[in-house]
Specification:
mainly alpha; 75% helix
């Protein structure tokens, strides 16, 4: 074999190896990018699932569920089982009056029921805001289901914020402020 033929084979080998190396590098970069996108999608799905579980807890807890029912029925009166075998009608005006009372005031059974319902509701909202802040969940995942309650609370902001402050739910106050910029 002549030296020029050997040189030509060596150049072709280097070109083939270089092209193969570039293809392998681009393939590796593509796979890394695909893995990253898959991890981002999985993280997004996990965050959405945690948000759903948190909302499920809010709406399945008997006390917080009753608070949402009270807010849903704010234009009407509704009957609630205050204690086993003791149902009473509650009006939204009664709710606002109870939430306006000083925490150390005397409460009857109905007032205790209302206070416990909203205490639990705001406790869970406080938890939701904390979860949003630490990026465990995304606000977008809890926005729609809680927007209507935010509107109801905004209509009587002073009463609700005073209640939340007196029960030390500062994160719940901040959560509902997120809706101020949303129509």
């Amino acid at each position: 074999m002549s030296q020029s033929f050997k040189d030509w084979i060596q150049v072709v080998s280097w070109v083939v190896l270089s092209v193969g190396g570039l293809v392998a590098a681009f393939k590796a970069i593509y796979e890394v990018q695909q893995n990253r996108e898959q991890r981002v999608d999985e993280l997004r799905w996990r965050r959405a699932n945690v948000a759903k579980e948190t909302l499920d807890e809010l709406f399945s807890n008997p006390h917080s569920r009753n608070a949402t029912l009270i807010l849903d029925w704010s234009e009407r009166r509704r009957e609630f089982e205050i204690k086993k075998g003791n149902s009473q009608t509650i009006t939204y005006g009664e709710v606002l009056a109870v939430l306006s009372k000083a925490p150390k005031s005397a409460f009857d059974e109905k007032e205790i029921f209302i206070t416990e319902c909203f205490d639990c509701f705001f406790y869970l909202i406080d938890h939701i805001e904390n979860s949003v802040r630490i990026k465990l969940i995304s606000f977008e995942d809890v926005d729609a289901p809680l927007r209507r309650y935010a509107k109801k609370i905004r209509a009587h902001r002073g009463t609700y914020e005073n209640f939340m402050r007196s029960h030390e739910y500062s994160l719940a106050i901040e959560f509902f402020k997120r809706f101020d910029s949303i129509a």
